[in-house]
Amino acid sequence: MCNFALMLGLLLAIEVQMNLTAIIIWVLAGLAVLGSILLIFLQQRTKKELKYELSQLSKMNENNVEFEFILKALQLATWHVNVESRTLVYDYDFRKKNTEWAALVDGSPMSEGTKLLVDEDAPRITKALEDICTGKTAEYHQEYRVKIPHTSSFYWEESTAIVAERDIDGHPLRLVGTSMRIDERKRMEEALVNARNQAEESNHLKSAFIANMSHEIRTPLNAIIGFTSLLPDVSGDEERKELIDLIQENNQKLLQIIDDVMNISKIESGDSVPVMSMVELNMTLTSVIDRLKVRIKKGVSLVTQFPKPEQYITTDVNHLMEMVKHLLLNALKFTEKGSVVVGYDQPVDKHIRIWVKDTGKGIPQDQFERIFERFYKIDEFVPGAGLGLPICRTMAQSLGGKITVESAPGEGACFTIEIPC
């Protein structure tokens, strides 16, 4: 009986133990399932976070590429300055570099950078940088000239900077800035200023031209009208002939003024197109000289110097005659005594030089270019509209040539037309 009870107790103990083990197994299995679910959740969350970070990294790389592209397109350099040590380091530098380049090593003191500048700009830039480093100003923006090593030339740069980091007291710790070369912009600015000055000068000259033209036209007209009104009252043939000669002379002056205005108008509108043909130069020059013999003053001789009895060239005969006529008129106008010589040199390299030399009062060297400007006159008291020499230069250029002058005050002048032949 006792043994039976003992066995029964043992069996019950074993059953309880087995139930407890099953419970533990089920609990552990449940915990494993919960752990797996939690791990799967955490894995998905980590995957999302990683995916997001990768997308941000990709976007950052794209932004960096775009940023570098912009810097390259603008040819900019970005840099930062450690305010405490006053040293400069370039982050990116896409400025256009060539042999004409002043280099600055990363980590160099700012004072080394200002040594590269033109002496007139260095103090201004040094002060501007020191002001932003000490907090006197919040921004820095300057244009300056950089010396090209081993030369006396320079190139232009523009820099901008701001304070990027401050200490707890608000004092600057770090600056960030950009630099770029602005040579082209400066050239454009200079060209615009010159164009504006030329436009203002042109307006002034045109105003003077209009005032001068009214006088130039009125003078021969008054002479023509005055001498014509005297003709009926003149009985002597000699006196009548003298009046008629004066009328014809003033007619020629008036026609010359009108021709000049018409020529300059045609040139400006582009209607004056060269027509090339074979020309005998000696005959052409002689023809122009014969027309102007009436303009020769007493004490002045008009001579020619032709190296050959005949010289054929291909050019626009009307342009050629017009140029020689204006040069001869100028020479005769400013020569009171001595001679006016018309000639040419034998062709060289398919070009020929035709020249008009006089013993007049001459031209100062600083006026050599100005005399070819429209409406410009060295002496306002000498008759003329100031169009002859500009017409000559434009016509010479239209033929593929040029016109030059050699002169000195009191030593006369020599104008040379050089054109293809």
Notes on the protein architecture:
It is a single chain. The chain has 421 residues and is of the alpha+beta class. The chain contains eight helices and 13 strands. The strands form three sheets. The chain has a six-stranded antiparallel β-sheet, with helices on both faces. The chain has a five-stranded mixed β-sheet with strand order 8-10-11-13-12, with helices on one face. The protein has a two-stranded antiparallel ribbon with strand order 7-9. The chain is rod-shaped. 19% of the residues are buried. The model has no long low-confidence stretch (mean pLDDT 80).
Strand portion: 15-25%
Measured distance between first and last alpha carbons:
152 Å
Assembly category: single chain
Main sheet properties = 6 strands, antiparallel
Number of strands: 13
Q: Based on helices, strands and strand pairing, what is the structural class? A: alpha+beta
Radius of gyration: 46 Å
Which range best describes the helical content: under 10%, 10-25%, 25-40%, 40-55%, 55-70% or over 70%? Answer: 40-55%
> What is the residue-mean pLDDT, rounded to a whole number?
80
Tally of helical segments: 8
Q: What is the strand arrangement across the widest sheet? A: 3-2-1-6-5-4
Report the order of strands and helices: HEEEHHEEEHHEHEEHEEHEE
Show unreliable segments: none
**Shape label:** rod-shaped
Summarize the structure.
With 421 residues, the chain is of the alpha+beta class. The protein has helices at 2-74, 110-114, 122-133, 183-230, 237-269, 281-291, 317-334, 388-398, and strands spanning 76-82, 87-93, 108-109, 139-147, 154-166, 172-181, 277-280, 300-305, 312-315, 338-344, 351-358, 402-407, 413-420. The chain is rod-shaped and about 185 Å long.
